[in-house]
Amino acid sequence: MSTEGLTHHIWSRYNEELERLRSSVLEMGGLVERQLSQAISGITEPDVRLIVRVAQEELHVNQLERMIDEDCSRILATRAPTASDLRLIITILKTITDLERIGDEGEKIAAIAARLATRERAQSRYRELRNLGELVIGMLHDTLDAFARFDTTLAVEVLRRDRTVDEEYESIHRQNITFMMEDPRTIRRALDVMWVVRSLERIGDHAKNICEYIIYLVHGKDVRHTRIEDIERELQAARA
Amino acid sequence: MRPSGRGMLQVAVDETRRSSALNAPIKARVEALSFYYGSYLALKDLNMEIREKQVTALIGPSGCGKTTLLRCFNRMHDLTPGTRYEGQIMLLPEDMNLVERGVDPIEVRMRIGMVFQKPNPFPKSVFENVAYGLRIRGVRSHIRIEEEVEKALRASALWDEVKDRLSNSALSLSGGQQQRLCIARALATSPEMVLFDEPTSALDPIATARIEELITALREQVTVLIVTHNMQQAARVSDYTAFMYLGSLVEFDETSKIFTNPGQKATEDYITGRYG
């Protein structure tokens, strides 16, 4: 299916409802993405007002989540959607849950960033966090792009990047254990860094979930808990 | 976290209905069936298999030929002059070609019952409506007829409502009850297949729900073929769905597949209410 197909219903109001729903999800995604990049920039460039701003956006994100949820319930009740419309509603219902969780993780990161700012900074100036953060923001950005365009090639590419996130996670984890063993005074800071890394890794997982929903939306294939090679093979078969 | 890989844990989702549908033997086979009203070609070279004791729904826009196809199954076209069949509908297991000239339509209708859009009970008593088919079949025994009538009325979930007024006129029943009476009448001759032509389009939601319940229960005994304009009804009651358009069969698949991820764009456009 393609995005153009969305608006060809005989009922013009149904078209409007689905179109509005889709743009609300993109709006919610955009907010979450901004929240996340603010939180990450707070780690490398300390800003005391950051946490307030991120928390305010979180309220807006939660509101959107409830609104989209309600709209989906209403469409399910009144339109009894089928086929691609049904898959769109299911995808949206699941996607907003993941987006909301990403928002929560962003808030956690902002809180830790505020704490890190009050302490002596690490020699690395948290370069490793910035790198991983950029990787994860890129994943989220492309996920939203893939949703906006129903682009499964991009979705698969994002799925692939989750491996790199997992590897980075492992490597920062090991590095911090070394720091803690060498100098116990760094333990508090190292633990905070680990919390951030853990949140970033979770965000990568949420982005990955959304990409899997997008593949379901477009091809009707459930690719959760499937190896990436198998996913690619299935998609090739679906496109053929 | 990384995926755990497929196959580590096989979760058994409730697929009993689905697997029984897939394994059901074939009851009828439509082979290269074309049908003409005079020179007008109404059905174009249809091929499909109807599974035994499963519900198969025929959907499609008005004029697509779904009712025409349904009526071929019990030779309802025979009374219309100038109609012509090509190809065959084989009824299994004995491979009887339902549309062959030499096959007696009365025999076909004994084995394949039909329920119409509007309830059409005879202007007789409730009892006589159901007993009718048995009587013309030559059943004489009162006891046997009484047994069969009760059985059919129970099977159509009407018994409790009419057991005390079996001698009342069938026309005194409500629309939903009349429709269930027509189903009982169709069941009384123990058919192998029952055809439903939009059986609930004249009924309210409650009566509709009762008929749908009944159709689901009938799967235990007979093969059901149903034409419906109500897409959700097709999705709810059927195991297989055939989408027809302009006299051709566009797509035929399991109902769950048709309504979540149809293979053809035309099917998708129709069931989602889009103009193609």
Written account of the structure:
The complex is a heterodimer of chains A (240) and B (276). By secondary structure, chain A is mostly helical. Chain A has a single domain, classed as Up-down Bundle (Methane Monooxygenase Hydroxylase, Chain G, domain 1). Helix content of chain A is 82%, strand content 0%. Chain A is built from 7 helices and no strands. In chain A, helix 4 runs parallel beside helix 6. Chain A starts with 11 loop residues before the first helix and ends with a helix. The relative contact order of chain A is 0.13. The model of chain A has no long low-confidence stretch (mean pLDDT 91). Chain B is an alpha/beta fold. Chain B has a single domain, classed as 3-Layer(aba) Sandwich (Rossmann fold). In chain B, a hairpin with a 2-residue loop joins strand 1 and strand 2. In chain B, helix 7 runs parallel beside helix 8. Chain B is globular. The N terminus of chain B is likely disordered. The interface between A and B is medium-sized, with 25 and 21 residues.
Instruction: Give the second-level CATH assignment, the architecture of chain B.
Output: 3-Layer(aba) Sandwich
| Main sheet characteristics of chain A | none
As a percent range, the share of helical residues of chain B equals 25-40%
CATH homologous superfamily annotation of chain A: Phosphate transport system protein phou homolog 2, domain 2
